[in-house]
Write a structure and sequence with these properties.
The protein is mostly helical. The protein has one domain. The chain is built from eight helices and no strands. The radius of gyration is 25 Å and the shape is elongated.
């Protein structure tokens, strides 16, 4: 989860200016064609709301929920360090910190730490891994369910008010284009991180250091985002084809 939230924040930050630019371009094109500019009706605003929530639901369900669950699965298949390498690095740091503290107590003739204090302040690696896996499972399942429920509810609501003509109009094209661009960026960024890290892990081994990034997280994001990218590409091309047919 160390890189999921920055990626999602970046994608949302990217989507907002894209929507603004597309709206400005559409406005200018209507002016050049001497078309009358009509403000959004309540129906159009409602459809725009549905599309925005559907896109956010896909991002939450896929990139946050689905990729987190997949990261857990990759850790089970390839080993916990594949997905939770940072926990191993933190364990090494905690071991050094414990040794330094015990040495300091010894120098000061202070009583050593009790077993209860050690277990509380320096839990074992196994305990912390179990906690991380459970935390990821809860996080992933929760966001996946949120994304699915929100997406399905708004998808059904959108289809209930949308006509056949509206399914190839400018509003749907903007939605498909933004979704295509968002998941294209997510796929490309995650692939550029995941492939080198995975190959490095396979052929060199886990790289020590505070900046170590386990390949499990970027690889899970890439595996999830790539099919969604392809889906949006297919829907965009089909939308263009259908609009030409109707024209």
């Amino acid at each position: 989860m160390d890189i999921i939230f920055p990626i999602i924040g970046g994608l949302i930050a990217l989507a907002i200016p894209i929507l603004v630019v597309v709206g400005i371009v559409y406005f200018i094109m209507r002016l050049r064609n001497n078309s009358s500019i009509r403000f959004f009706s309540y129906r159009a605003a409602l459809r725009a709301y549905f599309y925005v929530v559907i896109l956010i639901s896909v991002i939450i369900g896929a990139l946050s929920g689905g990729s987190t669950l997949l990261k857990v699965g990759l850790g089970e298949v390839f080993g916990a360090e594949f997905s939770y390498g940072q926990v191993y690095e933190e364990d090494k740091w905690r071991a050094r910190d414990r040794s330094d503290r015990e040495l300091e107590l010894l120098k000061n003739d202070a009583p050593p730490m009790t077993e209860e204090e050690i277990n509380k302040q320096y839990p074992s690696l196994e305990e912390r891994l179990v906690y991380k896996v459970k935390e990821s499972m809860i996080f992933g399942v929760s966001l996946l369910l949120i994304g699915i429920i929100l997406g399905l509810v708004h998808l059904v609501a959108r289809r209930s008010i949308e006509t056949e003509t509206e399914r190839v109009d400018i509003l749907r094209r903007v939605y498909l284009f933004v979704g295509l661009l968002v998941f294209a960026v997510a796929s490309i960024i995650s692939l550029t991180v995941a492939i080198p890290e995975t190959l490095s892990y396979m052929f060199i081994g886990a790289r020590p250091g505070d900046e170590y990034l386990s390949p499990g997280e970027p690889l899970s994001i890439a595996i999830i985002s790539l099919p969604v990218w392809i889906l949006y590409l297919y829907l965009t091309l089909r939308n263009i084809k259908n609009s030409k047919t109707e024209a």
